[in-house]
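Lab notebook, page 48
Experiment: co-folding of the full assembly
Goal: obtain a model of how the components sit together before planning crosslinking
Operator: M.T.
Materials (sequences as entered):
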Amino acid sequence: MAATTHTPAKHDEDLPGHYGPYGGRFVPEALTSALDELDAAFRAAIVDPAFAAELAELERTYTGRPSPLTPAARFGELCGGARVYLKREDLNHTGSHKINNVLGQALLTRRMGKSRVIAETGAGQHGVAAATAAALLGLECTVYMGEEDTRRQALNVARMRLLGAEVIPVTVGSRTLKDAINEAMRDWVTTVDRTHYLLGTVTGPAPFPELVRHFHSVIGREAREQMLADAGRLPDAVAACVGGGSNAIGIFSGFLDDPSVRLHGYEAGGEGIETGRHASRFSTGAPGVLHGARTYVMQDEWGQTVPSHSISAGLDYPGVGPEHAWLHDTGRVAYEPVNDAEAMDAFAALCRTEGIIPAIESAHALAGAIRLGRELGPAGLILVSLSGRGDKDVETAARWFGIDLSTSPDGTDPR
Amino acid sequence: MSRGLAEAFADARSEGRAALIGYLPAGFPDPEQCVELVVDMVAAGVDIVEVGLPYSDPLMDGPDIQAAVDQALRAGTTTETVLDTVGALTDAGATAVVMSYWNPIERYGVERFADRLADAGGHGVITPDLTPEEAGPWIAATTRRGLDRVFLVAPSSTDERIRTVVAASSGFVYAASTMGVTGARAAVSSAAPALVARTKALTGLPVAVGLGVSSGEQAREVAAYADGVIVGSAFVRLILQASDRAAARDAVRRLAADLAAGVRGNRACG
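Observation: model returned without errors.
Model output:
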């Protein structure tokens, strides 16, 4: 579909919280009143200048916003010579875009008079961000994390505990992000009178997809202004990785109404679509309901969720934000899988050309930029959402590239 | 054709008691034993049986039912198993409904599911994560096939929400006794009587209480103010703990009899 015919993702006026046929609320009745309360608090907050001012001040003095826009000339040479700019969400406090959403929701939690937040986490980035915001605002914090992920991301578990959060390894189901969300929902339904569920991405029942998008829209707003100021024009294409899809919605939201800007979302192709071990919802999933929303879901013929796989814990999720489902169907955003190997090649390339170690999640977007640049050539202008930094992934990357993590007894590199 | 939900509740009421509703997931501990155990429940005094459709992401269920559905899914239970189980129970004379999270029904096809369930003799479906706002096609399909739709109310539901839920419901209304997930508890929530009273003030439908009832004593307590008592996790736990097939049957029969005495306002016999 030509980009000029795109349909912006607008809510159906008759059905709040829906994106075409997607979104909605598929939750136990016990949560309906909490979602109504959240919805009311959110709508009151976003028209309250005092709320906006407090959030903006935290973004400036705590997160470190605006995040820079970095020209990546040497990396661009690998992208067919295209001009490439990186939106540096990796430079935010806590190392990813996740802080944007948690600060907003933590302020909402306080506004609702609740004293406790719970969160799910895959890679640990959202858990760390949630624990950080909770510490900052004096909220109690419990993070649910799949047991499998606590092993993959042990460093982030330690960070959360240092920040005062309780981390509960989830040992049911596939022991990854989807099961952490199930456990967080079970906690929430039991403790909802004093607990806010600080959901980490643009999924879940309404109003979460809209609310999380709102707090990440700062990425796209800043990036659009920065591109006009630094590159002199709008980009030809924007590349972002898509797990649940919060960094992608954040950056895309700045360009949805610019028909000349192509938007590209990159899902985890894992070991390859043909192996079945991937997290490519748009390649093999079908519309269904997961975690409170109708969206694309990796599922079998009976509607049972199929486990996802990715080298990147943050993209390892069988569902996707409902607005992405709608943007996919309308053709406004093109979604493609990037395999583990291609993402890791892009990871290495950014390290060595720009001196930036990206999160493996973000490396999927970088791989997308390489594809786009080869298509667009030297005249092309590409914006990449560098959603997180790779400190948490050093061990995984070292293993992938065969770098020996052990040192000899005198502390020198054994090589 | 077994008697319908309205008739089952009316029969219980005519006996001056609450109806007893027992739950097991289809395919647990295997398809054949599931039918055997549910038939035992009915023989011991369960009025309505609730056949669970095992789902990979049961976010309203506690550890016992999670473990049971996990076991059933690993053994290959599918939506067809559920429908076959309903058919077998109907043949045995039981009044059966299905309890299912929404995605498996949507995936199977809303119209097709309604058709197959009605053809198998099922009387309705309890949908714990479907709210009336999202239920348009489901309401049309169930109406067409004369199936009852059971939606849930919870202690946090406002009167306005309860009005919306009961307007979309038929057969009975499921009152979740507590803010939480399924699982046997030492005491039934103190929120339940108030919720039942608020719901009954807004509908003529029977109101049944679920979540946390595990003994005849608790059933007696709930039966004093509700039209139905729903027991699931307590049965599941006994089966998970049973050493063999015979022990499971024995434990299930005993609990069902204890609960049946409870809804009749009697102390446990034997």
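Interpretation: The mean pLDDT of chain B is 95.
Next step: discuss with group before ordering constructs.
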